[in-house]
Amino acid sequence: MKRAPSSLQGLIYRHYLKSALIPMLAIELVLLTLYFSINLYISTRNQDTLLQEVQNNLLTITTIEARSIDNQLGEVARLTGLLQRAQETFFAHPEVCRLPNGPPRLERHPNGAYYKADDNGGASLYYAATTTIGEAERHKARCSEDLDPLFKSIVDANPIVTQVYLNTWDAMSRIYPFMHDAAERFGTTWDVNDLAFYYEADAAHDPERRPVWTSAYLDPAGAGWVISSIAPVYRGDFLEGVTGLDVTIERFIRHILDLNLSWDAMPFMVDRDGTILAMPPRVEQVFGLQELLEHEYAEPLGATPGKPDAYNILKSANPTFSTGMLEFFQSGQSLSELRIDATRYVLIQKPISQTGWRLMVLVNEARILAPVAALRDLTNRIGYVAIGVLVVFYLGFFLLLLVSVRRLSNRIVSPIHALSAATSDLGRRMDSRPLQPAGIQEIDRLSRNFNEMAVELDKRTTQLIEVRVAKQAQEREARILARMANTDLLTEVYNRRRIEEILGAELADLTDPDATFGLILCDIDHFKSVNDRHGHLAGDQVLIEMTRLLRAQLRKDDSLGRWGGEEFMIVCPRIDRGGIEQTAEKLRLGIAEHEFPIVGTATASFGATLARPGESMNALVARADSALYAAKESGRNRVHSAE
Question: Burial, 521: exposed, middle or buried (Cβ in 10 Å; 0-12, 13-18, 19+)?
Fold first, then answer.
């Protein structure tokens, strides 16, 4: 007699509830939970204590380093003040002309710039070609050699200063160390008013006339990405120029941010707006940026571009990072925790009073807590060993039970796997194979339901595909017919029927006496000679190219249609008389200046007019046609406007 299929519930009751598995596992689970909970509690307390100590330590170190950086920047600012006073003295006494390095050789460069040709141990000199070089300019270029010993001593004495410069109102630049390619680097024209290191020191930005620091910018003199301490140089109330000391980002990192902090802490510097001024390679990896140390100067720079927004920590593409950084930045607090992606960091900031910048230190919490984590892992491994011992101890006891469970699981899992595979292929295959009985009532019932569903789904899918294919064919055919009905087949602009519909609609809507629209008729001049000389294929190509030129010059709301032969109609909504005449003239010039394939040049005549409320289409078209006729009669390649 065939044995009736067993129920899944009956199998579970017979094989699991008869055993002592659940009570024994419950006892072991309670013991292990107690062990690991106590381990976690102790580890958490140790982490909190260690983290607090590290934060206090790093905060102290950061405070000391911030003071050190502030002192170094203060020294640079003081040197800037020294430069400022020396140069104001120079401009106050133009009659004094000392040449400590001998007379300089000043020449005209082929690009028109006035420059210092030889390195005599002093600074380079450049005058833009746009500046008229008279006796006063030659005197200033020559006698400003008196400043070179001071320039040189500042660069030689201060390790973070890379160059010293003076930029004057009349586009003169004196820079030390000497630049052999100054004339090529600065080019023919050089408007100092466009330079960040010039206008940031003018009366509007620096009314107190003190040395100030710039944000990071690309140095036009070729030093790459720099920050500058700048000061205005006045003669009375006249701004003669701006002097400054440059510190490259690379040297700033090497001399200021090369701090050997514990726990792999990573220092970086930001300005008052949140833009990263300098960062070492480890911070680059965290922020996903690369410090801008160099730049390829392919051509002269006329302005001073700053760092992109990607280098502003308050404008990060990561919203979690930018929000947390903004709150911390605005709070003025010294210490905070920050999450970047899935990593938690301790963040410390200390202001640099000299510039308003901030020295920030970032340290990975995981690096701080590594010793505690290692101890916790050790105790966890001890717990895992205890679990292993318990498993071995109970292995003999559970052996018979495991054999029974395995046999039961195979009986249950095999048909479930088959059902799972069938459901996975249901949407991809049209030839679903029926599932076979497994000998378990619930699973067999589910298999029968699945087989019936698969058959019905195959039938409905086939019907749906047929309906969708037919609908897509109808829609494609309708689009093609609509396009053919409204479009000129050669030029692919509106045909005469469609442009007349648009013109009629505009006339019907023209009820306000103050509102109007424009109509332009365009006719290609001597088009018959194009066909006669080059053939009709060349003439067709001219028509196609002409429509491309017209469409490129028209507004989005303007409508272009082929009125007939080589004549085109343009409907321009919401336009006045001046606008319709300017539009027609722009179209005429675009055609006249274009080089057509095979034909070469071609011209067109235009007639333009404005619609009047209440007038008929024939009257409006006739007026535009009369204007077109007048343009042709007056010599072609013209625009004529009709009242």
Answer: buried
Q: Is 632 exposed, middle or buried (0-12, 13-18, 19+ CB in 10 A)?
A: middle
Reported as a single tens digit per residue, the pLDDT across 559-617 is: 999 998 899 999 999 999 999 999 999 999 999 999 999 889 999 999 999 999 888 99
Give the 3-state secondary structure of 159-202: CCCCEEEEEECCCEEEEECCCCCHHHHHCCCCCHHHCHHHHCCC
Residue 334: per-residue pLDDT: 83
- Please answer whether residues 34 and 27 qualify as being in contact, where contact means their C-beta atoms are separated by less than 8 angstroms: no
Could you give the CA distance from residue 213 to residue 201 in angstroms, rounded to a whole number? 9
Q: What is the mean pLDDT of residues 99-125?
A: 93
d(Cα 610, Cα 593) in Å, to the nearest integer? 27
| Separation of first and last alpha carbons in the chain | 108
Residues in the chain: 643
* DSSP designation for 7: P
CB atoms within 10 A of CB 465: 11
Is residue 438 within 8 A of residue 447, CB to CB? The reply is yes
Cis peptide bond N-terminal to 177, omega within 30: yes
In 3-state terms, what secondary structure has residue 428?
Answer: coil
Residue 272 backbone phi and psi in degrees, to 5: -65, -15
Q: What's phi and psi for 518, nearest 5 deg? A: -110, 155
Q: Tell me if residue 105 falls in helix, strand or coil.
A: coil
One-letter amino acid of 161: V
| Residue found under tokens 């394939």 | 597
Smallest Cα–Cα separation from 102: which of 72, 145, 133, 65?
Answer: 145
Name the residue with tokens 């102290």.
60
- What's the CA gap between 321 and 317, in Å, rounded? 8
Q: What is the CA radius of gyration of the chain?
A: 42
pTM (whole model) above 0.85: no
Cα gap 194→541, rounded to integer Å: 48
Residue whose token pair is 């071609």: 602
Phi, psi of 587, rounded to the nearest 5 degrees? -65, -40
Instruction: Write the DSSP symbol of residue 244.
Output: E
Question: Looking at this protein, which amino acid is placed at residue 605?
Answer: S
pLDDT at 197: 66
Please count the CA atoms within 13 angstroms of the CA of 533 that sit on its side-chain side.
9
How many CA atoms lie less than 13 Å away from 116 in the CB half-sphere? 28
Structure tokens at 116: 């210092």
Strand partners, 107: 115
DSSP 303: S
Q: How far apart are CA 502 and CA 510, in angstroms?
A: 12
In this prediction, residues 33-46 reach a mean pLDDT of 80
Count the Cβ atoms, other than its own, within 10 Å of residue 460.
10
Task: Of 278, 55, 85, 76, give the one whose Cα is nearest residue 161.
Answer: 76
What is the helix (H) or strand (E) element at residue 609, kind and residue range? strand 604-610
Distances in Å between the alpha carbon of 391 and those of 382, 396, 474?
14, 9, 70
Torsion region of 267: left, alpha or beta (phi above 0 gives left; psi -120 to 50 gives alpha): beta
**Vertex 468 angle, CA 463 and 473, to 5°:** 130
Provide the b/e sequence for 253-266 (b: ≥16 CB within 10 Å).
beebbebeeebebb
Distance CA 165, CA 151 (A): 8
